[in-house]
């Protein structure tokens, strides 16, 4: 299989984009990525669109064709890819496999979600479809409730505290404050998190990522032609994906995500690196507990040791490892289908040295970690700068 | 890229499957395919699930993981693929590309749709999401209405008659009568079609495919290991996919589907055959006019000549070319995400000589044609028996 590089990325501002529909979000991110890659829209020969719930939230399915049409592409194969909150990461990985496997030379991965045209309650119910409708949602648990169960058990087993959960939110809001694309530009304190409204005990409002609109796009090409378009192509050095049971209760353990461990093991092996080689990582902090579990599942910390490390500031900008420099899902926002590709865009900018005020000093190797549902899907990609 | 063969296929009975939910349909088709392939469920290393509207129709998203979980797979990468009514064909083609490209050795493509748990009106509205929500559906046209426009223009330009449309339905019900998996086991007459309720002039009830539940699955492996599992592996000799505008009104012509012409040209070139080499074809007859357009787009007949040929019986079982031996969408049923993979299953059975009462005498080369929306997506695959 061929080596694959990202030569262009683009984002929309994330947030409540009342003025923008699916088409305008797709245009904004898609054109930005095409311009960043120095290619023509007519060059794109394959389009993967990551999106979770356009059918339920906007009554529009078939958004692969919609996106191809909107961007004026030359009738390429296009399709929507759905894996709940990992839809974007899955679309990116499919684009990677298409280029690596030889069926595409200019693949676009585009993620989009338009969530604020319905009520928060309708959006939350829609997101519940990421879990098990029959054996979880219909039994009365909400999607935040699933992560609350994981948090409670993590607290029970490892002594993790609510203040440590809050530390994740504070750090990610600090990072988002420096990111013009972020949903939130508001620094918060541990005290504010602790006093925010209870959503699903122990998770409070500020432990939860928001409902956002937004889109993100990336252009992938074979490495051997990448330098024709871009001086600093970013190699996808490793990629792994795994699935697990749909229902949380069917897992051996709920204090970590097995699919993420399997996916990251494959990605590390392919990239021939170990977790300690990673300088900058975007991880799936749909709820604060998820970032703590991610740090452990990805091997950055031993089981039960991540929460204290985060509290101690080891994962801040230019800490031992810089985590969620974009602000993560918590601070940058979580337009579901876009998130996995936004993660890649942030790593590309960090590895290029283009991350502005949030640029980390050393960024040679980056990683993205995108999770679907309560951990039924995980996608992990590893990125290297090619000088 | 590697040569790829199908070594196993499985179907559920299509129809109003009130007793079965998504999980049971997935089990039924998935296990049948695994058994037909003589492999273990643990062998599958990649799972593509074709589905259009589980979110809207059953409130369950994330059915890649649901299917992997249901079939007891070994944590493989899994995802849902959506391309409206071409979701199944797209999933099959993605599985083909994964094996051809070297990222999978045992890929499963599974298509499923559960449509009868909501009212016919809700299901039809959900299917409308295949078209352009903003510029078609919200303006008042229904999805049958889009194909009615195509039919009217075809009648105007080429003299196609309502009786010729009806001939498609009669033929496909005749074929479905011989297929134990088909939704309908009822032969109909031209007169009955003509007298059936008007849906969208000139399309009557019997010009329309039904709303069905069902699932279909196929197992794809590299050709060089296929004979270890199956004496008659079926080679995917060519595969093409293309997109077009989402909105019908944005096309140059509405008497044919450009995406199908682009996709089939690619597939024919890859397979190094011409249309006249095809013995048996499953084409996308969501409405009777669609089969007439397919015959022309695929090059089986010159523009404007297919309707008369169908009326003359040239596409019946063991005609000049045997078309929709399964009964097609019209007679076999149309559980949207399953359809494209059911088409492949029918061709596999025909090429193996296992199609029972509907077996065609000569079946060396087969073709499937799966369309999304009013033609915004088309997937065409070509199959050959490997002796």
Largest interface, Cβ cutoff 8 Å:
A-B, 64 and 64 residues
User: Low-confidence segments of chain A, ≥5 residues, pLDDT <50?
Assistant: none
Shape of chain A: globular
Helix content of chain A: 25-40%
* Run of helices and strands of chain A: EHEHHEHEHHHHEEEHEHEHHEHHEE
Straight-line N-to-C gap of chain A:
21 Å
Number of helices of chain A: 14
Q: What is the tally of beta strands of chain A?
A: 12
Structural class of chain A: alpha/beta
Q: Roughly how many Å is the radius of gyration of chain A? A: 19 Å
CATH superfamily placement of the largest domain in chain A: Thiolase/Chalcone synthase
Return the CATH architecture of the largest domain in chain A.
3-Layer(aba) Sandwich
Main sheet summary of chain A:
10 strands, mixed
CATH topology of the largest domain in chain A: Peroxisomal Thiolase, Chain A, domain 1
Mean pLDDT across the residues of chain A is 97
Integer tally of domains of chain A = 2
Oligomer: homodimer
> Reading side by side through the largest sheet of chain A, how are the strands ordered?
3-2-4-7-1-8-12-11-9-10
Q: Could you characterize the architecture of this molecule?
A:
The structure is a homodimer of 387-residue chains. The first copy, chain A, is of the alpha/beta class and 387 residues long. Chain A folds into 2 domains: 4-119 and 211-226, Thiolase/Chalcone synthase (Peroxisomal Thiolase, Chain A, domain 1), CATH 3.40.47; 130-210 and 238-385, 3-Layer(aba) Sandwich (Peroxisomal Thiolase, Chain A, domain 1). Chain A is 37% helix and 18% strand. Chain A is built from 14 helices and 12 strands. Chain A has helices at residues 22-36, 54-58, 63-70, 87-101, 120-128, 143-158, 162-176, 190-195, 223-226, 258-271, 288-297, 306-311, 328-332, 336-352, and strands at residues 4-11, 46-50, 78-82, 107-113, 198-200, 203-204, 214-222, 234-243, 280-282, 322-323, 365-372, 377-385. Chain A has a 10-stranded mixed β-sheet, with helices on both faces. The first copy, chain A, has a two-stranded antiparallel sheet with strand order 5-6. In chain A, a hairpin with a 4-residue loop joins β11 and β12 (377-385). Chain A is globular and about 55 Å long. Chain A starts with a strand and ends with a strand. Chains A and B meet through α2, α3, β3, α4 and α5 of A and α2, α3, β3, α4 and α5 of B. β3 (78-82) of chain A pairs antiparallel with β3 (78-82) of chain B.
């Amino acid at each position: 299989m061929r080596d694959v590089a990202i030569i262009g990325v683009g984002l929309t501002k994330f947030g409540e984009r009342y003025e923008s529909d699916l088409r305008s979000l797709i245009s904004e991110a898609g054109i930005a990525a095409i311009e960043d890659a120095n290619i023509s829209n007519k060059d794109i020969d394959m389009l993967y669109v990551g999106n979770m719930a356009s059918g339920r939230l906007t009554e529009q399915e078939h958004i692969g064709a919609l996106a191809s049409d909107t961007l004026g592409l030359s009738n390429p194969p296009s399709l929507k890819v759905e894996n709940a909150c990992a839809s974007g990461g899955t679309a990116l990985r499919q684009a990677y496999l298409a280029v690596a496997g030889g069926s595409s030379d200019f693949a676009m991965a585009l993620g989009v979600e338009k969530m604020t045209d319905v009520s928060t309650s309708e959006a939350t119910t829609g997101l519940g479809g990421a879990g098990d409708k029959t054996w979880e949602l219909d039994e009365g648990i909400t999607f935040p409730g699933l992560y609350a169960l994981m948090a409670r058990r993590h607290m029970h087993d490892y002594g993790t505290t609510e203040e440590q959960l809050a530390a994740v939110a504070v750090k990610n809001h600090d990072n988002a404050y420096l990111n013009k694309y972020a949903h939130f530009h508001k620094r918060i304190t541990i005290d504010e998190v602790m006093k925010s409204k209870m959503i699903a005990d122990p998770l409070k409002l500020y432990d939860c990522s928001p409902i956002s609109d937004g889109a993100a796009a990336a252009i992938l090409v074979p490495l051997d032609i990448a330098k024709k378009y871009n001086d600093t192509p970013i190699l996808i050095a490793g990629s792994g994906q795994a699935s697990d049971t749909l229902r949380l209760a069917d897992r051996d353990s709920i204090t970590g995500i097995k699919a993420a461990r399997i996916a990251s093991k494959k990605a590390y092996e392919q990239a021939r690196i170990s977790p300690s080689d990673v300088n900058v990582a975007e991880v799936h902090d749909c709820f604060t507990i998820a970032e703590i579990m991610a740090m452990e599942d990805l091997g950055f910390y031993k089981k039960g040791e991540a929460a204290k490390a985060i509290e101690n500031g080891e994962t801040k900008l230019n800490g031992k490892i810089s985590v969620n420099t974009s602000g993560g899902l918590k601070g940058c926002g979580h337009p579901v289908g876009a998130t996995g590709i936004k993660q890649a865009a942030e790593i590309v900018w960090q590895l290029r040295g283009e991350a502005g005020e949030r640029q980390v000093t050393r960024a040679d190797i980056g990683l993205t970690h995108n999770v679907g549902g309560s951990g039924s899907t995980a996608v992990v990609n590893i990125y290297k700068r090619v000088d």
